[in-house]
């Protein structure tokens, strides 16, 4: 475990000759690079943390002549703004990362699904896409990339909902299986990765797994971008080595009066002060897509929870019972307790419900509503009741 | 042969074919898992979550209807975690639900009610989230009550997948998500065909038929009215299901006996006008064929489409208005009956048509709409006053205190009560075609159709689109133009199949002379007014019963029906004659496609 918070500077570096790097990988061979990617321990940066090498391998080996690569740039998690930063500052790297995925898996077409608010990046991305398409053709690879703008629903960041939305249907998560790697966009095997994941794949292509693994922990290799906001001494996007404790993070970013950190946004976990020291930020502890929200003692945890629940009540796609009705019950439930219309023991009823939502919801949205809810209720019960 | 997958369910080992869902695998060993959004006729949704089960090593529960088995999978279907989740889910649904089972027409047949009872759910643990809303009663046929909807999307899937109509859709998201229509318009103003298939699959009382039970009782109780009732062929093979009989039991005689006991003045048979339809439609087909084949007149559109299914009529008016000339101008048997009840019947029996109340019992909800079409008033009155579904009839029988199963069989009254096997098979997909061929072939050649015991098996069965052809040889002199013609026919049931067939015809991929379309899966036997539940097995049993009834009829060809012969002799003159055209034929209206 890292003892001191380590700033890294890998993600935004664009002083790379992408064509040359691509040639290097082509020489190395697809199999070899997949091994390298698996060996690097890279896990998806969109939140779920699926091993990226394995994902690419499955798509590569799936017997279908048509495959797709999708970059998930929907970035809807409250308090997350790191993908925007990457697309702005390292657009070429993302696009070449997708090209790399296309070469490895055999996909000839790709899409960047980008949230509507980031429309201002359109020209920049188009230019980068054109350049990549041109350069990669001279390497003998055909890869066409297009931009698709989302309609602003949080749930459309969920990969199956994203694909439904791309196909012109209601943006609703579908049953898994089938997974996108087998039956994705238009029923074809599809790689869906977060913006940052593609960038990390490029870093690994550049420096190699060995070097990459020097950063982070066994479960959480490499570095990661964090979107820091709230009651902090510095706001913004920071690249940090994975595997730090919340305490280390707070020491660097807190305002000296931090009572809790919400790791992973509305769908993440609330870590209270007493847990700072023994909570690791990463897949072995509290995973995060990047959002780090710092709260000091002036904040009411009730208000924070209520805000999250208002968000979920609206952003649930509404198709499955535990999530659609559960979010409403949690929201109105804490309000009823606050107003003394329900006894404080009602929170226990709601906790049980939160577990049902976690177990029985159809997609990650409904399953993760319980995270924020249980971690806040369990640690700040008093603030909810009084 | 597909691969077999070994799993255990509640520690019981079993092997099931690849791609079987956990739910279906459990069913094979008689382990029942509750469901709400799952339906045998529909694609998987996996959204109610009440079917969740535990799978070893998975920290979450999985939806058994939506999860295929995996080799070595260990499934548990009854654990404390599962029970708590199911109970929660039901309790959550109830907090949104306008629970008023006592007044709800779905009571006793409601899947939500049944599960809520089974799990002893408490609808007051959580907060009341009910939103006030009024039922949409704009449609003559379909009543939609959002306050009873559990958003299972069965109706949406039915309308899209089985019917290809897409009148229903999910709207909004989150707490506002609801089942709705295009721009939230009332049901009467959308592309809905009134087929009622969504009703048959709705697990709750959110979709029901508009009911006319009170109106019919009032007519029966009114001494100044002469109330005639006609019953469609598919009703008698399904009604028994509402009284505990297995699907496929015919209760024709008992149904007639109960209608009489309830106080209807005359209990008559839609099969009679089914036979009449064959005479009119068959004649129309022959004259279209003659126009095209002899006179080279292309204004006579071929193929000719049958017109007995009002759901299909509204569908083609909305979706394929350019094909309306192909539609036979014949009214449906219900409407032929209605107009004759207030003309021919009134005259013969000596009633003033204004005193006649004409009721029909149908397997169908679209007929409720049809009876209210403004063009269906050729008798000078509304030809059919009230249309009841099979389900409503069952309720009325219960209300009248009759134990239908103990009644002695009784025959239909006269006149307009006689029928043939050809009229009976109208209730099954392919039946109109078979009846038409039995009569037309004989009319043209003077010989019976060349099929064993008159059973034209190629047009029978549940295949979505059926095709058949029949060589016409050694014709009578007046049909010389048909000599050597290979008559090509096609049959579609379920509007999604109809749509496919229409596309093929429109794009001139295929040519037919005559096409039968029934809006509902399986034909009228699977109609939107039939007892619930419905599934492929139930429909197969009903179909079987229909063909059995046909086989046991002494007369099996429409033109042999003595009352039909009498009707032409005494009243109509000849098929497609002047009076027929006035009373038995109609026209169609192009409608918007939203
Ligand atoms: C409700 C919900 C929203 C999500 N939003 C995003 C998002 O905005 N961006 C993203 O990359 N992944 C998002 N995900 C995760 C994706 O489903 C998917 O796991 C991810 O794109 C895979 O890429 P990765 O393996 O590179 O992380 C979301 C998941 C859920 C359940
Ligand atoms: S969990 Fe929520 S967002 Fe996911 S499918 Fe269910 S209702 Fe939709
Ligand atoms: S829909 Fe079912 S549960 Fe609801 S009121 Fe009707 S019978 Fe009762
Ligand atoms: S009645 Fe038929 S057409 Fe109308 S909404 Fe229901 S399924 Fe669709
Ligand atoms: S109307 Fe009925 S079938 Fe349709 S979503 Fe609601 S409950 Fe389900
Ligand atoms: S029956 Fe399986 S989720 Fe509804």
Task: List the main descriptive attributes of the protein structure presented here.
heterodimer, A: 386 residues, alpha/beta, Rossmann fold, Ubiquitin-like (UB roll), de novo design (two linked rop proteins), 3 domains, 5-stranded mixed sheet, 9 strands, B: 594 residues, Alpha-Beta Plaits, 4 domains, 33% helix, binds flavin mononucleotide, binds iron/sulfur cluster, binds FE2/S2 (inorganic) cluster
Layout: helices, strands, pairs:
The complex is a heterodimer of chains A (about 375) and B (about 600).
Chain A: H1 18-28, H2 30-40, H3 52-61, E1 68-73, H4 82-89, H5 91-105, E2 109-114, H6 122-137, E3 144-149, H7 159-166, E4 190-194, H8 195-212, E5 223-230, E6 236-241, H9 246-253, E7 258-263, E8 269-272, E9 291-296, H10 301-315, H11 321-338, H12 346-360, H13 364-385
Parallel strand pairs in A: 1-2, 1-4, 2-3, 5-9
Antiparallel strand pairs in A: 5-6, 7-8, 7-9
Helix pairs in contact in A: 2-3, 2-8, 5-6, 5-8, 10-11, 10-13, 11-12, 11-13, 12-13
Chain B: E1 4-9, E2 12-17, H1 22-28, E3 52-55, E4 61-63, E5 74-76, H2 80-96, H3 111-118, E6 142-144, H4 154-162, E7 168-171, E8 178-181, H5 197-201, E9 207-209, H6 213-221, E10 226-231, H7 252-262, E11 266-269, H8 270-293, E12 304-305, H9 310-319, H10 333-349, E13 356-362, H11 366-371, E14 386-389, H12 390-399, H13 421-424, H14 431-445, E15 465-471, E16 486-493, H15 495-506, E17 514-518, H16 536-552, H17 562-572, H18 578-583
Parallel strand pairs in B: 1-5, 10-11, 10-13, 12-17, 13-14, 16-17
Antiparallel strand pairs in B: 1-2, 3-4, 3-5, 6-9, 7-8, 15-16
Helix pairs in contact in B: 8-10, 8-14
The site of one iron/sulfur cluster has 14 residues of chain A, from helix 11 and helix 13.
Written account of the structure:
The complex is a heterodimer of chains A (386) and B (594). By secondary structure, chain A is an alpha/beta fold. Chain A has 3 domains: 18-213, Rossmann fold (3-Layer(aba) Sandwich); 223-296, Roll (Ubiquitin-like (UB roll)); 301-385, Up-down Bundle (de novo design (two linked rop proteins)). Chain A has 13 helices and 9 strands. Chain A has helices at 18-28, 30-40, 52-61, 82-89, 91-105, 122-137, 159-166, 195-212, 246-253, 301-315, 321-338, 346-360, 364-385; strands at 68-73, 109-114, 144-149, 190-194, 223-230, 236-241, 258-263, 269-272, 291-296. In chain A, the strands form 2 sheets. In chain A, strands 6-5-9-7-8 form a 5-stranded mixed β-sheet. Chain A has a 4-stranded parallel β-sheet with strand order 3-2-1-4, with helices on both faces. In chain A, helix 2 (30-40) packs antiparallel against helix 3 and helix 10 runs antiparallel to helix 13. Chain A is globular, with a radius of gyration of 21 Å. In chain A, 58% of the residues are buried. Chain B is an alpha/beta fold. Chain B has 4 domains: 4-78, Ubiquitin-like (UB roll); 91-209, Alpha-Beta Plaits (2-Layer Sandwich), CATH 3.30.70; 213-272 and 335-406, Rossmann fold, CATH 3.40.50.1780; 276-330 and 421-536 and 545-584, Fe-only Hydrogenase (Larger Subunit), Chain L, domain 3, CATH 3.40.950. Chain B is 33% helix and 13% strand. Chain B is built from 18 helices and 17 strands. In chain B, the strands form 5 sheets. Chain B has a 5-stranded mixed β-sheet, sandwiched between helices. Chain B has a 4-stranded parallel β-sheet with strand order 11-10-13-14, with helices on both faces. In chain B, a hairpin with a 2-residue loop joins strand 1 and strand 2 (12-17). In chain B, helix 8 (270-293) crosses helix 10 (333-349) and helix 8 crosses helix 14 (431-445). The A-B interface holds A 153, 155, 170, 175, 177, 312-322, 324-329, 332-333, 336, 342, 349, 352-353, 356, 358-362, 367 and B 44-50, 52, 59-61, 63, 66-68, 81, 84-85, 88-89, 92-93, 95-96, 125-127, 129, 150-151, 153, 170, 172-177. Bound molecules: flavin mononucleotide (FMN), iron/sulfur cluster (4 copies) and FE2/S2 (inorganic) cluster.
């Amino acid at each position: 475990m890292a003892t001191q918070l380590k700033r890294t500077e890998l993600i935004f570096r664009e002083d790379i000759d992408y064509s040359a790097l691509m040639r290097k990988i082509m020489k190395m061979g697809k199999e070899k690079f997949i091994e390298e990617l698996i060996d690097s321990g890279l896990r998806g940066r969109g939140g779920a943390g699926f091993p990226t090498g394995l994902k690419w391998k499955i798509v590569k080996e799936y017997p279908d002549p048509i495959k797709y690569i999708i970059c998930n740039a929907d970035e809807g998690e409250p308090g997350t703004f790191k993908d925007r930063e990457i697309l702005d500052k390292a657009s070429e790297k993302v696009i070449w990362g997708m090209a790399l995925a296309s070469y490895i898996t055999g996909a000839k077409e790709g899409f960047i699904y980008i949230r509507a608010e980031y429309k201002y990046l359109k020209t920049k991305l188009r230019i980068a896409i054109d350049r990549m398409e041109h350069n990669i053709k001279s390497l003998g690879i055909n890869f066409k990339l297009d931009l698709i703008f989302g309609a602003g629903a949080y749930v459309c960041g969920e990969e199956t909902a994203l694909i439904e939305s791309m196909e012109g249907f209601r943006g609703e998560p579908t049953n898994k299986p089938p997974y996108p790697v087998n039956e994705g966009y238009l029923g074809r095997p599809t790689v869906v990765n977060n913006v940052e994941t593609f960038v990390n794949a490029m870093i690994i292509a550049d420096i190699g797994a060995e070097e990459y693994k020097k950063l982070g922990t066994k479960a959480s290799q490499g570095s990661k971008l964090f979107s820091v906001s709230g009651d902090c001494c510095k706001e913004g996007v920071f690249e940090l080595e994975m595997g730090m404790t919340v305490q280390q993070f707070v020491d660097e970013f807190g305002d000296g009066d931090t009572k809790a950190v919400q790791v992973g946004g509305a769908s993440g976990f609330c870590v209270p002060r007493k847990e700072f020291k023994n909570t690791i930020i990463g897949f072995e502890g509290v995973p995060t897509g990047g959002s780090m929200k710092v709260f000091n003692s002036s904040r009411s945890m009730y208000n924070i929870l209520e805000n999250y629940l208002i968000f979920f009540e609206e952003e649930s796609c509404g198709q499955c019972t535990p999530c659609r009705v559960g979010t409403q019950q949690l929201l109105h439930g804490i309000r009823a307790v606050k107003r003394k219309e329900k006894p404080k023991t009602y929170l226990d009823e709601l906790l049980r419900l939160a577990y049902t939502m976690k177990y029985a919801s159809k997609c990650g949205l409904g399953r993760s509503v319980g995270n924020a809810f249980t971690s806040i209720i369990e640690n700040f019960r008093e603030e909810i009741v009084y | 042969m597909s691969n077999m997958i070994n799993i255990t369910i509640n520690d019981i080992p079993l092997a099931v074919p690849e791609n079987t869902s956990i739910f279906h695998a459990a069913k094979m060993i008689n382990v029942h898992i509750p469901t709400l959004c799952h339906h045998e006729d529909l694609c998987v949704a996996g959204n109610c979550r009440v079917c969740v089960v535990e799978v070893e090593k998975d920290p979450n529960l999985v939806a058994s209807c939506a999860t295929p088995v995996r080799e070595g999978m260990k499934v548990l279907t009854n654990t404390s975690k599962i029970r708590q989740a199911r109970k929660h889910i039901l309790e959550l649904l109830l907090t949104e639900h306008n629970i008023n089972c006592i007044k709800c027409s779905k009571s006793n047949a409601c899947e939500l009610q049944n599960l809520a009872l089974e799990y002893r759910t408490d609808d007051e643990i959580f907060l009341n989230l009910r939103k006030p809303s009024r039922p949409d009663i704009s449609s003559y046929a379909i009543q939609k009550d959002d306050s009873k909807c559990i958003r299972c999307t069965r109706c949406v899937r039915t309308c899209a997948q089985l019917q290809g109509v897409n009148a229903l859709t999910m709207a909004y998201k989150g707490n506002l998500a609801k089942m709705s229509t295009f721009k939230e318009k009332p049901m009467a103003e959308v592309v809905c065909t009134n087929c009622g298939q969504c009703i048959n699959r709705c697990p709750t009382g959110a979709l029901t038929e508009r009911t006319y039970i009170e109106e019919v009782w009032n007519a029966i109780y009114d001494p100044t009215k002469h109330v005639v009732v006609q019953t469609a062929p598919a009703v008698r093979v399904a009604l028994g299901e509402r009284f505990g009989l297995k699907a496929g039991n015919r209760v024709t005689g008992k149904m007639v006996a109960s209608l009489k006991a309830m106080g209807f003045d005359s209990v008559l048979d839609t099969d009679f006008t089914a036979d009449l339809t064959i005479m009119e439609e068959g004649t129309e087909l022959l004259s279209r064929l003659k126009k095209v084949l002899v006179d080279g007149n292309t204004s006579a559109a071929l193929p000719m489409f049958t017109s007995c299914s009002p759901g299909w009529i509204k569908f083609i008016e909305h979706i394929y208005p350019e094909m309306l000339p192909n539609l036979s101008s014949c009214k449906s048997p219900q409407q032929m009956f209605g107009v004759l009840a207030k003309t021919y019947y009134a005259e013969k029996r000596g009633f003033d048509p204004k005193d006649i109340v004409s009721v029909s019992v149908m397997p169908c909800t679209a007929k409720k709409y049809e009876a209210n079409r403004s063009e269906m008033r050729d008798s000078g009155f509304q030809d059919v006053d009230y249309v009841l579904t099979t389900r409503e009839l069952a309720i009325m029988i219960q209300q009248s205190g009759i134990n239908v199963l103990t009644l002695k069989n009784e025959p239909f009254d006269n006149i307009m009560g006689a029928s043939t096997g050809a009229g009976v098979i109208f209730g099954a997909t392919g039946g109109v075609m078979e009846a038409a061929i039995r009569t037309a072939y004989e009319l043209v050649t003077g010989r019976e159709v060349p099929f064993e015991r008159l059973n034209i098996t190629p047009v029978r069965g549940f295949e979505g689109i059926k095709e058949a052809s029949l060589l016409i040889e050694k014709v009578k002199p007046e049909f010389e133009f048909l000599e050597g013609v290979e008559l090509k026919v096609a049959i579609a049931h379920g509007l999604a199949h109809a749509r496919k067939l229409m596309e093929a015809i429109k794009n001139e991929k295929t040519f037919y002379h005559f096409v039968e379309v029934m809006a509902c899966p399986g034909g009228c036997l699977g109609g939107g007014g039939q007892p619930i539940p419905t599934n492929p097995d139930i429909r197969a049993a009903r179909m079987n019963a229909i063909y059995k009834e046909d086989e046991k009829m002494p007369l099996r060809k429409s033109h042999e029906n003595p009352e039909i012969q009498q009707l032409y002799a005494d009243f109509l003159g000849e098929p497609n004659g002047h009076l027929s055209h006035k009373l038995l034929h109609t026209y169609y209206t192009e409608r918007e496609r939203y």
